[in-house]
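[step 3/7] inverse_fold.run input=structure_tokens len=84
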């Protein structure tokens, strides 16, 4: 399949056919990962973001009173005297 490379402002882009996006599960995605591999541009579904879901999990812990500190607060000698 050939696609046209189009000028978009000071950039260039391609319009991908919906049938192609359906084949790889990108039809409803708003972002994707793009890399160059062996002189080919490769477009993939984005992997799950690092720390994805941590905020929700922390809220669940807090709601159940399970968010106590594992280490006590600590500071270096002289920290309290600093004009932060």
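[step 3/7] decode complete -> sequence:
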């Amino acid at each position: 399949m050939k696609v046209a490379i189009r000028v978009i402002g000071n950039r260039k882009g391609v319009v991908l056919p919906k049938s192609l996006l359906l084949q790889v599960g990108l039809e409803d995605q708003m972002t994707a990962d793009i890399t160059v591999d062996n002189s080919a541009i490769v477009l993939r579904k984005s992997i799950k973001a690092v720390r994805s879901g941590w905020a929700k999990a922390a809220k669940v812990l807090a709601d159940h009173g399970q968010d106590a500190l594992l280490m006590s607060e600590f500071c270096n000698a002289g920290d309290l005297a600093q004009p932060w």
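[step 4/7] annotate
The first strand starts at residue 6 and ends at 8.
Residues 1-67 form a domain with the Pemi-like Protein 1; Chain: D fold (CATH 2.10.260).
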